[in-house]
Design brief:
137 residues; alpha+beta; Tetrahydropterin Synthase, Chain A; 4 strands; chemotaxis; cilium
């Protein structure tokens, strides 16, 4: 009995999951945001209590309000990278290594990048900032 139902269940699941993207495309609503990945990844050091140097490697993605503003962010990427490195390199080890500290750093970075872009472009461009890679040593 189970051998008979297994192919039926598999085909039902396969056709249902294959059909989902078609329904999403038929809706006609394109997403009103885009993710911009900052390249290359950022590697910098952070403050440690002893003489040992701590390193952090992050990959940052920016969620942009408007897909047409991706070129603007790419143009200002040097400024944004400098701000991220400045913020992260001033953080103590305890903040870098804790989940709540990581969230605080993310929020601080988001606010600073929006502040810089607003000064340059007179508009808030970044909706959210994500650390898609966060390695520390």
């Amino acid at each position: 009995m189970i051998k008979i139902l297994r192919p039926l269940i598999f085909s039902l699941v396969a056709t249902t999951t294959c059909a989902l993207p078609v329904y999403a495309e038929e809706g006609g609503m394109a997403p009103s945001f885009v993710y911009y990945t900052m390249q290359p990844e950022i590697t910098t050091n952070y403050i440690t209590p002893g003489k040992k140097v701590g390193f952090i490697n992050i990959k940052v993605q920016l969620m942009l309000e408007d897909p047409t503003l991706e070129a603007t962010v790419a143009y200002h990427q040097g400024l944004l990278r400098d701000a991220l490195i400045d913020i992260i390199s001033k953080e103590p080890e305890a903040t870098i290594k804790s989940m709540s500290g990581r969230q605080a750093i993310r929020e601080k970075c988001l606010a600073r990048l929006n502040e810089l872009l607003e000064a340059e472009t007179q508009q808030v461009i970044i909706k959210d900032l994500l650390f898609t890679k966060y390695l520390y040593q």
